Amino acid sequence: MDDRAEPPRNRRDAGLSTKALIADVDAAADPAVAEVLARYFQLQPGGYGHGDQMIGVKLSTIRGILKPYLRADLPLPELEQALTSPVHEHRLAILCLLADRATRSLKPRTANPQELAAIYELYTRSTAYINNWDLVDCSAPQIVGGYLLDKPRDPLYVLIRSDQLWERRIALVATQFLIGQGQTADTYRLAAEVLDDREDLVHKASGWMLREAGKRVSEDELRAFLDRYATRMPRTMLRYAIERLDPESRAHYLTR
Description:
Helices cover 61% and strands 0% of the residues. With 256 residues, the chain is mainly alpha-helical. The longest helix has 19 residues, at 88-106. It starts with 17 loop residues before the first helix and ends with a helix. Residues 1-11 have low confidence and may be disordered.
């Protein structure tokens, strides 16, 4: 008789649960790293991250922790509940996991429109917890941009007109996925909407997406936008947008 242990029937039997994921993140906590991250993400009073809680787990560490969980098909309701955690790194882990699942749902061999829609709906219900730039940037392209790829883009314009800084950044950064598919119209339209935005983190996101659109799709389109709006663009947005242009062009737009 073979007395070897019977293999687990599924990944959840193997201990890969949402609760276990959060416990693994907690086990990697480092108070010294937490102090550095708290400064970097401006958790101090008056900073854009004030009120958040860091336990000190870097993104690279979180990605390593996530590896065995990426194919575990953890229940979306459990992940949505975990996304309400007061701990920044818990939310970062959940968002990275959801972004990976959204990406797999978009690929021809693993296409799953129902799951992609469910992840998108979960995400848009949870924007109150997606409240720092790393949380936005690791998730908005795949989840929001990916879902909207073949759909009307109206949700982006609702987000860009939000009073919430992070929802406006979600709208802009979501277009990174669209840019990768050669679609730049929304990037330029959204950038025009935030020319007078009060937040530097919105200026950075807008300039970053403009730069990506120029680099990956059409420099001529970017130059046309700059010719029209450079004199109105916040300095940060402009500097990000022109970063990959030749020195003469950068000087031209900066001195207009």
